[in-house]
Fold ATP-dependent RNA helicase CshA.
Amino acid sequence: MTTFTDFALSKRVQQAIDDMGYEEPSPIQAACIPLILEGHDVIGQAQTGTGKTAAFGIPVVERVGPEGHVQALVLTPTRELAIQVAGEFRKIGKYKRVRTLPIYGGQSIGHQIRAVQQGVQIVIGTPGRVLDHIHRGTLKLQHVRMVVLDEADEMLDMGFIEDIEAILGETPADRQTLLFSATFTDDIKRLALRYMRDPEHVTVNRGEVTVPLTDQVYYKVLERNKLESLCRIIDSEEVQLGIVFCRTKRGVDELTEALIARGYLVDGLHGDLSQAQRDRVMKKFRTGEIELLVATDVAARGLDVENVTHVINYDIPQDPESYVHRIGRTGRAGKRGLAITLVTPREFKLLKQIQRETKARMVAREVPSLADVAERQAEMWRQRIIETIQNGGLGHYRAILDSIIDEHDPVDIACAALKLASAGELEAREEADYDFGDTGATPGMVRFFVNIGRSNRVTPGDLVRMISEEAGVPGQAVGKIDIFDRFTFVEIEQDSAPFVYESLRQSRWGGMRVNMEPARPRSRR
Ligand SMILES: Nc1ncnc2c1ncn2[C@@H]1O[C@H](COP(=O)(O)OP(=O)(O)OP(=O)(O)O)[C@@H](O)[C@H]1O
Ligand SMILES: [Mg+2]
């Protein structure tokens, strides 16, 4: 087994690693540290939370010389990540006294300029702000010997590529270039070769991109019930710290407000907040002052917060990479995690695509019913009432009730008091459902008209198979099937009907075009 001492690191770096409590190198560290120490360019790919930061951090710090100019540059896609990676570098370089500096937007540039002037050896920054310094002439990169792109696939993607090119153009051509991420597409790897010299490819766990210690589940929800479903799911989980991802900044704001209104300890993070706000929110999350962080994909990559037990995709991620990185915020460094994805009927295909491309094992779960949640809440109130009786000190309240106790049933009085105390929390609520109108189906079922191209060779067995494969519903959800000359009608259980409808309303199956519509009873006559 490899140990850190095998790398012949300087005493001061080795001591720092010991202080950090790293006993043995993770696989990506074991493979990359020697290569980087020897001066190779490296493309390093390993699952989220497996120590990629130190895999480049340790050898980069080790290779930095005593000269007081910028020798290494690390680029990250977000400010929070730059801050975090800078923290890791500071720890590794603690005894070597390597001077590191995070440089990112939203922070006073004057302060950064003064800090650079004091002789920084390693800069960790976001591309925009680094370019800003280059243009102002306040950051000189001509002596840079090592460049790291953390989250390299993201950095070489559309949003960043021009900035990256411009920055790399400021560094010497014979620099050492290091690329790290949990995900690399073949295209990005090919593109990366342009900026590298004969790189070594290190890939850990080629087969699985997601972390096996993170269980992955999904809940089928209806758009209009999403908030309610989320709350029920959270209430049925023991969340220590959780990150809830939304697609848009506005979605983050809205969900944050809605959750606060419902009494959850949450705050939101996205790119439109001031840096001071972003710092405050991250601090509240890292210290556990809030239990849920609601965020856009700005929090998807690289963030390492201890004890994140849950990642919840409130909005389904738009591509497999985003899924991998988002859920990678939990299940880090050998800990367990749970990744939850909410999926609406319209998004079901996307879920299946993510599942296919990440080879993820996702298990379907049922949103707790209102009855489940109601029972849990009722139990909680019963407990509270019993505890309150046991704690005593009720004399004052008894006096208040004295004047009505003769005229009203004591149980009625207790019920009224509970209604007031629970502020509506215990009111009966109704389950909302997808409205297909009257389709002339058996009670509890929805009848659909299915049109499968010109081919009439479809058997009832084929239909059941198609429906369960495409919509991910059990075969039992399919009821009566009528195959006429040119028309086919299928009855689907109410609960599964929205998913079947959204998956099959317009799709392809075995090369045939499939259309599906809720049946209208009149057309049956
Ligand atoms: N050798 C080690 N022994 C113990 N813990 C480690 C070791 N290396 C790293 N860690 C810890 O593992 C956690 C994850 O590390 P890191 O953030 O570098 O992961 P990553 O691979 O960069 O993940 P991501 O793809 O999400 O960016 C950190 O908390 C880090 O301190
Ligand atoms: Mg990382």
About this structure: The longest helix spans residues 370-391. The chain has a mean pLDDT of 91. The pocket of adenosine-5'-triphosphate (ligand 1) is lined by residues 22, 25-26, 29, 46, 48-54, 182, 302, 304, 328, 332-333 (CB under 6 Å).
